[in-house]
Amino acid sequence: MPLAITEDHRALAEVAAAMVAGRAGTAGARRVLLDRDKTDRWWSTDGLWKEMVSTGWLGLHLDERFDGQGYGLPELTIVLEQLGRAAVGGPFLPTVAVSAVIAEVGTDEQRERWLPRLVSGDVVAGIGTNSDVAVRDSTVSAAAVPALAEAAADLFLLPSGDDLVLVQAGDGVSIRTIDSVDQLLTPVIVASLDSVHVAEVFPGAAGVAVRILRLLAAAEAVGGLGACTEMATAYAAGREQFGRPIGSFQAIKHHCANMLVDTELATAATWDAARAVGAEAELAATMAAGHALTAYQRVSLQNVQVHGGIGYTWEHDAHLYIRRATVLQAFAGDQDALRDKVIALQLDGVRRRQSVDLPEGAEQYRQAALDFRSELEASDPVEHQRIWARSGYLQPHWPAPYGRAADSVEQLIIEDALDGLDKPSLGLGEWVVPTLLQHGSKEQVDRLIWPSLEGELRWCQLFSEPGAGSDAAAVATKATRVADGWVVSGQKVWTSDAVNCQRGLATVRTDPKVRKHKGITAMIIDLSDPAVRIRPLTEITGETLFNEVFFDDVFVPDRDVVGAVNDGWSVAMAAFGNERVSIGGGSVTMTAEALIDLLERHRPGDSGVAREVGALLIESYTLATLNLRQAARAVFDAGPGIEGNIAKLFGAEHAQRVAELALRIADRAILVGEEPEVVHDYLFSRCLTIAGGTSEIVRNLIAERILGLPRDPAPK
């Protein structure tokens, strides 16, 4: 999904995409790459550059007082994303980076002097962040200073310790163009600065330049990531080998699914970083670059792998993105530096507070929620679950009278207003009960919903069976028709929380003669029936969350059939869609943030392990922003997103990586009984990539249902 969520941002993205496409897209980039013996200012005669200048893109993020458009960095990142999709070259990125820095740290006089000239396109700039120049008596002298710039740049913004200096090209400035991996976004060497007059000094601003360049580079990377993922997916869907599209092979599906995961995480992190302000902005930009730039390199290389030999040719677009990813990584994405910065900021107490910008009028819901809070806090705790249930605040998104039919905005307000209250959990009922609301009869709803909300009935899900694995349609438990109902016999397994439940929603086979998805019926099982046997399963942690459930000719009355007979697959799919809690329950206690304290206790001063912690902190941030974008998309009616599917896959694997690193950090402490939660999480986390569909199956689903790759051929 693109960076743009709001209607205005989507419109801007469409205009930018159309402008790039109208100027030949990547064909223009290839033409420049193949014909590099042009003049130093080749980009100034390019039609796209002229159009970018005339439409005001160079000043999109700048105040109107300085001839800008009056927007900000979020809008600039949207344009850069579209430029990145076509690997557009030229001085746009360094020029807008320099103007953004001056806009933030310059005085009004400095802004008035430089920003209008940068907006006009008559003056283009370069930026350096990877070396230091020394200033003495208002002049600067240095040798071999790398900068992201065109050879004919008019200005260079360079670091000098914690400060920035602005140097004009001219006498005493010698520029050498590098035979770079990317001749479209050209790094140059300021080969020498010989007592060059410093045009401006921006005290203490070096960190600002680094932050802004990281953010803007991440935005361009998002565009490249999207282009590579779409390119690889389209090729996989159309290219045939061994008599079928290569996209039907699981290995290719997993490659493409991984590319999409990387793209979506980079998009979410960059979107959030563009909104951040203050100290949080530095952390967010570092996190965004930490994922996006590394992911861009990884995905651009994977794109070639999916294409095979054709992707290795000069004429193909694939290498354009490898080249761009390499340069962006080198200038803005040094992984050790990024991870060190993340750790340093975390130790300084900097945290990114996640929030969604709510539309006007959203606060109308807050007072009602606060009134409910006051009522609850003044009541007898014995009555709390009933009060929660009857108020509609227990499940506010459910339809009235069982919920409040709250839209996304009201849900966010309620969550904030009631934060900290001990809210009752319905367990797996949080997705089983809404399935009854969707597919159950009026009699079932009247009989079962209120007792479920008030805690009298607790539900489990009886879908998984021995030998079925992730195939929820492989139902062998059978139901035989008898007078006024059915007799159910068979076995379910991996049933979470069954020993604590009074009811279960089961899938049973009612017609073995039709295809397996067609002969399934959903039924409510009374777990107190003597013909039901529940046997807890001991997990590798020693806990007994999962259960086997045996049905020894259990009678199920007709009134407990949910939906139509033989239409149970649609009921099961609704239950999967209503999932709101972690399948298998339980949780890991060790988060990426908690690794910092663990590191201080057991591996202080170990910079190598600290960087591994930094990498997981970046992962944690991208996952949080992915979930935040899902909420923001709902608030702005931007249509359904794919964040939930990505979060399920990435979140489980991230939790495992955290648990594995925690064990390594704790090291010998676990041998003497210290850090027991580390050992528990290490063992427990193994279930996260299995329960509710293995990571391999989830990758297949992402590839097929989101990317549209062909399904595996049906077995003959």
TrEMBL record:
Pfam families assigned: Acyl-CoA_dh_1, Acyl-CoA_dh_M, Acyl-CoA_dh_N
One Gene Ontology cellular component annotation held by this UniProt entry: plasma membrane
Alphabetic keyword roster: FAD, Flavoprotein, Oxidoreductase
Residues in Acyl-CoA oxidase/dehydrogenase middle domain copies: 460-554
GO molecular function (one): oxidoreductase activity, acting on the CH-CH group of donors
InterPro entries membership: Acyl-CoA_Oxase/DH_mid-dom, Acyl-CoA_Oxase/DH_mid-dom_sf, AcylCo_DH-like_C, AcylCo_DH/oxidase_C, AcylCoA_DH/ox_N, AcylCoA_DH/ox_N_sf, AcylCoA_DH/oxidase_NM_dom_sf, Mycobact_Acyl-CoA_DH
Swiss-Prot/TrEMBL cofactor(s): FAD
Residues of the Acyl-CoA dehydrogenase/oxidase C-terminal domain: 213-342, 566-707
Domain Acyl-CoA dehydrogenase/oxidase N-terminal: 6-122
Gene3D superfamilies per record: Acyl-CoA dehydrogenase/oxidase, N-terminal domain (1.10.540.10), Butyryl-CoA Dehydrogenase, subunit A, domain 2 (2.40.110.10), Butyryl-CoA Dehydrogenase, subunit A, domain 3 (1.20.140.10)
Keyword Flavoprotein: yes
SUPFAM superfamilies the record matches: Acyl-CoA dehydrogenase C-terminal domain-like, Acyl-CoA dehydrogenase NM domain-like
Keyword Flavoprotein carried by entry: yes
Coiled coil, from the record: none
Family membership noted in the UniProt record: Belongs to the acyl-CoA dehydrogenase family.
Name of the featured protein: Acyl-CoA dehydrogenase
Protein source organism: Mycobacterium intracellulare
